[in-house]
Amino acid sequence: MSGAALGLEIVFVFFLALFLLHRYGDFKKQHRLVIIATLLAWYLCFLIVFILPLDVSTTIYNRCKLAVNSSPAESNGSYVTLAPSKQKCFKPWSYIPDGIMPIFWRVVYWTSQFLTWILLPFMQSYARSGGFSITGKIKTALIENAIYYGTYLLIFGAFLIYVAVNPNFNLQWNQLQTIGIAAANTWGLFLLVLLLGYGLVEIPRSHWNGAKRGYLLMKTYFKAAKLMTEKADAEENLEDIMEEVRKVSESIKYNHPLRKCVDTILKKCPTEYQERMGRNMDDYEDFDERQNSYPSEKSLAKLHKQVIYSVQRHRRTQVQWQILLEQAFYLEDVAKNESSATRQFVHTFHSQEPENKIVQYFYTPTVEWYWECLLRPWFYRVLAVVLATFSVIVVWSECTFFSTKPVLSLFAVFIQLAEKTYNYIYIEMACFLTIFFLSICVYSTVFRIRVFNYYYLASHHQTDAYSLLFSGMLFCRLTPPLCLNFLGLTHMDATISHKNTQPTAYTSIMGSMRVLSFIADGFYIYYPMLVVILCIATYFSLGTRCLNLLGFQQFMGDSEMTSDLIDEGKELIRREKRKRQRQEEGENRRREWKERYGNRDDSTRSRAVHTDQKESSFSETNASRPLSKYTRSNGRTERDRIELLQDAEPLDFNADSVNDDPLESDSGR
C-alpha cells in the first residue's frame, strides 16, 4: 500500500475539483485557458487539504521509528529523539516513502504561488479585455498589471537594497526564500481569520435556520424582490448597450476597415438582437471617411468589453430567476403538504427536467413527504448542533494553541492521545475532519461573498471568467496559511510546540520562521485570537446591520425594509405562479384536444390524400380524351365539392340565388 493512498487521493481530488468547476463554470462558452488555470488552482488547493493528514501520520511514524532506534539521551542531528517506546511502531497503511513528500509539497506550493501572484492576475485582465486579437488582449493585460507587478518589484527591490547596505544582515538565498514565504503567508493569514470568523458562525446558523420552513420561505421572497430589481437593471443595461451596438453597426459599413471588429461584437450579442440588427442593415452604401465620423478601435474595444459583461449578467439573472422560482414553489409545496392527511407529497407543478427512474422508484411521494415534512428539519437541527460544537472547539483552540504546558488546544490533545497508541487511522481521520471543517468555513465564505458585480460565484454554469480566476487566486493565497494554522492547532509545527522533533514535510519546505521572529512569535500566535471578536460580530449580525444602514438591502427580521421586500417578493412569486398555471392549463387543453380529435383529423387527412390520388389518376387516364368530356368531368367534380360544402354549412333560405346555381342548370340541360 506504499504510495497507493497518495495516488488514490490525487485522482479523487482531481474529479472533485472538476465537478465543482463544472457546476460554476461553463466549459462550452468560456475560454479553455481560463478553465485550465482555474481547475489547476482549485485542484492544487484541494490537494493540499486532502494530502496533509497523510503527511502527519507519516511524520508520527518516522518519529516513533527514530525514537525506538535511539537511546533517550542520544542526539541525532539537529533534533533530540524521544524516549524509546515500549510498543512496536507499526507502519501506517498510508505510509509514504521518504523523499516523496518534500518534492511533492515543493512542486504543489510553488506552482500555486506562481498561479496566484503572476499568472492568474494576468489572465484576469486578459479575460476582461475587449481587444479583438490575442496581441491586443496581451497588451491590455500587461498595461493593467504594470502597477500591480511594479509595486511588488519596488518593495522587493527596496528590501534587497536595505539588506545589502546593512552589515548586520547576512542573508542567504534560503533565508530570502523563507522571508518571501512568510510575507505571502502573513497576507493570507490576515484574510483567513476574517473569512474563518464569519464561517464558524454562519455555517451552523444557516443549517439551524434551514430547519425553519417559514424562515426559508420569507428569505426566498426577499431574494426574489432583490433579484427582480437586479434582473430589470440587467435588461435595461443590455438594451442600452445593444442600442449603441446598433448605431455602430449602421455607421460602419461592410467595406470599412473596422467592420471585422463590429462583426466580432455582433457575434457576442444575443440571437434576437443579431437578427434585428441584420434586418435593419443596408450594406450597399459605401463609407465616406470625409463625411462621417467613425468610432476608433479603442472605443470599439471598450464597447466589446461592455457587451461581454452585459450579456453575461443578463443571462445569469435570467437563470437565477428561474432557479429561485423553482425553490419558492417547492417551499410553498412543503408548507402545504405538512398538513396533508394522506402523507404523500403533492407538487403544484411537474418537474421540467426528466427524473431518474431509479430515483423515482425509491424516492416515492410517501418517502418524500416523510423526508421533507418530518425528518429533514430534525436532521438539519442535529447537524447544526454538531457544526456549532466544532466551531466552539476551533475558537477555543485558536485562543489557546500557543500553550504547550499544559496543552490546552483540544485538537492537539486528540492527536497526542492517538500518537501514544499509534492509531494511525484515528490520527488521519481526526486530522482530516479538522482541516476539512476549517476549509469548509473558509471556502464556503469565498463562494458566498459578492463584491458588487465584479466578483460573484454563481452556480448552474453562470460564473464569468473573471470571478473564476479571482476565486483561484483566493484559494491559492488562503490554503498555505490555513494548513500552517492547522499544524499549529495540532502542535505539529515546531514553531508552536517548541520541540526539536522531526517536522512534517510541509513545514520543512516553509523554512524556519525564526528568521523573522516578530512574525513567528507574535503575529502567527496572537493574531488568530481575533477570530473571537469576528465570531461575536457575526453572531449579532453587525456587518449586516452596517450594510443595511448604508443602503445595501440585507435580510433582517426586524427591519421595515425587509418586510416591504418580503411582501413584494411574495406578490412576484404569486404572479409567476398564476402565469405558469395558465401555461400548464393551456398545454393540458391542447393535449386533450389532440388526444380526442387527433385520430379523426388523421383519418380525414388520409381520406383527403386518397381522394386526391384517385383524382390525379383519373385525370391521367383521361388525358387523351376530347376536351369537352374532360371539362364535363371536371365540372361534376366541382359540383360534388360544392354540395359537400353546402351540407357542412347552414343554408340561407332568405337568399334569392338559392336556385340560381349554374351547375344545376347545366345538369338540367
3D architecture notes:
Belongs to the LIMR family. The chain crosses the membrane at residues 6-21, 33-52, 103-126, 146-165, 177-201, 378-396, 425-446, 466-489, 523-542. With 669 residues, the protein is mainly alpha-helical. It has a domain at 1-68 and 90-204 and 357-550. The chain contains 23 helices and four strands. The protein has helices spanning 4-24, 32-68, 100-128, 134-144, 146-165, 173-209, 213-251, 259-268, 271-280, 297-337, 357-362, 365-400, 410-421, 424-448, 465-489, 494-497, 505-510, 517-526, 531-539, 542-549, 560-621, 627-648, 662-668; strands at 75-76, 79-80, 450-451, 455-456. The strands form two sheets. Strands 1-2 form a two-stranded antiparallel ribbon. A two-stranded antiparallel ribbon has the order 3-4. A hairpin with a 3-residue loop joins strand 3 and strand 4. Helix 3 (100-128) packs across helix 4.
Which terms would index this structure?
disordered C terminus; two-stranded antiparallel ribbon; 1% strand; single chain; 23 helices; 669 residues; mainly alpha; 4 strands
Give a topology summary.
Blueprint: H1 4-24, H2 32-68, E1 75-76, E2 79-80, H3 100-128, H4 134-144, H5 146-165, H6 173-209, H7 213-251, H8 259-268, H9 271-280, H10 297-337, H11 357-362, H12 365-400, H13 410-421, H14 424-448, E3 450-451, E4 455-456, H15 465-489, H16 494-497, H17 505-510, H18 517-526, H19 531-539, H20 542-549, H21 560-621, H22 627-648, H23 662-668
Antiparallel strand pairs: 1-2, 3-4
Helix pairs in contact: 1-2, 2-3, 2-14, 2-15, 3-4, 3-15, 6-12, 6-14, 6-15, 6-19, 7-10, 7-21, 8-10, 13-14, 14-15
Coiled coil: 224-251
Pfam families: LMBR1 (PF04791)
Biased composition (Acidic residues): 658-669
